[in-house]
Amino acid sequence: MRDPGRFERDVLAPIRAIVGDRGIITDADAKQPHLVAWRDNWTGAVPAVVMPADTAQMAAVVAICAATGTPIVPQGGNTGLTGASQPHADNSEIILSTSRMQKIRAIDLDNDTITVDAGCVLATIQQAAAEAGRLFPLSLGAEGSCQIGGNLSTNAGGVQALRYGTARGLVLGLEVVLPDGRIWDGLRGLRKDSAGYDLKQLFIGAEGTLGIITAATLRLLPQTPASATAFLAVPDPAHAVAWLRRARKNLGENITTFELMERRCLDIAMRHNSRIADPLATRYDWYILVELNAQGDEEALRQRLLTVLEAGIEADEVLDGTLAASAEQAAALWRIREGAPEGQRLEGASYKHDVSVPVSQVPRFIAEADAALAARFPGIRSFGFGHLGDGNIHYNPIQAEGGDFAEWQSYLPEVNRIVHDIVIGLGGSITAEHGVGRLRIAELAHYKSDLEMEMMARLKQCFDPQNIMNPGKLLQPELLARHKAR
């Protein structure tokens, strides 16, 4: 246990002198929103939440933490799904929040870039780009509250990754406060730069374990105001992949989103949200939600989608479907997809897997995982949905209806192992877009090769030899200790 008086004198008082009373929270009630995960059961405890106003303040605070050996938990909008931004419960860490760092520093329309502070909310960046006549395409369910620094720290994917890639591909430059308090200024808006290592990529997806992203220069793209949205029924995931192949051949980069969901997702979404209705008159086993975006005439885009849909029906790839005739109808179709995760949460114990496999292997993955879990856990309800276009499936089976919640929760480790063994066997990843955090830390070490884990541990040792930057996340402490001793 630390000495509270010494901690106040050596750590909190110097930090308060830097950030002011507005930049530090020690009141228990005011700290609470920063300590609790919004989806899972993590609840942490810290003596303070510190909110620097700019990069200089952030660097000065980190320097104090480095000098005193005080562990840091970087935190953005606290919308993560794996506990990466959650402190532990022993009061050993402080939270460093970017929530006051919200400036849009520059927009360069000739270079098609926007430079922003890490605390900028994703939706604010989208809006600023739109007002400048451009598009910033990263799009997530939490975009009204998540912050760009956290998005980059987890290499967020989202519903438009099929067309635009993940967050990693949208970044041209970063500014980062390193674990010793120095500032690395890598805010270059260059599309070509072969002068040595691409250092920014080390911090994207590192979940705050190598440094704190404080600003980013991001790519902007042309706006695509014309849109077309369809909700289609397909016989099974294999036919969905077949129609995706047809659609990509005929529609190319106009396909922005390609989502897959099974019937149970629709049923549960409707059960828990009265604003969701079945858009088709007949029940089917599997569905696709597809959205196109382009410049030019919207009716022509809808006609192109209709032509490919009709060809899919003739080839027995598609069974039925409806095209949105208005923005309101498109929003109603999207409510189905958005209502699936929320409805699932209300159905009892569920096993959340954010996995990816090659698109060609998605049907095999779902079939093998469904069969293996049904054989081991009779009554378990399959619940699969996600971004078929990029191979990222949220495979979240739910406990048997009427089953005991605690009993089904106890099956989590075995369910994870069954699902992840299949994923790895198909050349996939156990985390596609949510990151590792605390949730997958042991599984990462189980599935990654020893060499991969050693390389990551050595990077961590290089940048953060004291292990003060988000300790206990991504990499297991015993792994770091083992490589530190070498």
TrEMBL record:
Which Pfam family, any one of them, does this sequence belong to?
FAD_binding_4
What cofactor does its activity depend on? FAD
Q: Which PANTHER family has this protein been placed in?
A: BLL6224 PROTEIN, D-2-HYDROXYGLUTARATE DEHYDROGENASE, MITOCHONDRIAL
Lineage top rank: taxon: Bacteria
The processes (GO biological process) annotated in the record are: respiratory electron transport chain
Please indicate if the UniProt record lists Zinc as a keyword: no
Arranged from A to Z, the UniProt key words for this protein are: FAD, Flavoprotein
Which source organism does the UniProt entry give? Teichococcus deserti
Give the protein name, as stated in the record.
Answer: Hydroxyacid dehydrogenase
Which residue numbers delimit the FAD-binding PCMH-type domain? 42-223
Q: What are the GO MF terms of this UniProt record?
A: catalytic activity; FAD binding
Keyword Nucleus on entry: no
The record's InterPro entries line, in alphabetical order, gives: FAD-bd_oxidored_4_C, FAD-bd_PCMH, FAD-bd_PCMH-like_sf, FAD-bd_PCMH_sub1, FAD-bd_PCMH_sub2, FAD-linked_Oxase-like_C, FAD-oxidored/transferase_4, Oxid_FAD_bind_N
Which family is it part of?
A: Belongs to the FAD-binding oxidoreductase/transferase type 4 family.
